[in-house]
Amino acid sequence: RQKLLLHISLVALINKDYTNAASSARQARDLNPEDGAPYFVLGQCYAASASACGGFAGQATFWAAYDAMAKAIELLPGDSEYVEPAKASLANYRANFPNTEECFFNELQSGARYTVTCGTAAGVVTTVRPR
C-alpha cells in the first residue's frame, strides 16, 4: 500500500496536481516514516505551491519545503536517484526564504516556531530561518 501511494504521489506531482501529490505522499510517509521518497515529494509540493500564496506567506512555505527535503536526504540511501536533485533543491529553497527584515516586520525571530498558512504545506510547523 505504501508503494502504491508513493507511485500515486509521483504521478500527481508529474501532472502538477500538488494537492493530491502531497496528500498521497503524506499517507505513504505515515505508513513508512523511514522512507525518504515521500519527503522528497512533499518538499517539491510545498515549494511548488508557494507561488500561489505570494508575499511573506509564500516565502515562509519554503521553510517547510526545506525541512521536508532535508529529511528526504537524511533517509534516502546514498545511491538513490533522488539524492542529488534533493540536495540541489535545498539551496534553491533557502534562496527563497524570507530575509531578516521581512521576518522582523512579521514579528518573527530566528529559531521561533512558525505554522505555514497556505499552499500544500498549510498547517505544517517549521522553524523561522531568515535568508
UniProtKB/TrEMBL annotation:
InterPro entries: TPR-like_helical_dom_sf. This is Uncharacterized protein. The lineage of its organism: unclassified sequences, metagenomes, organismal metagenomes.
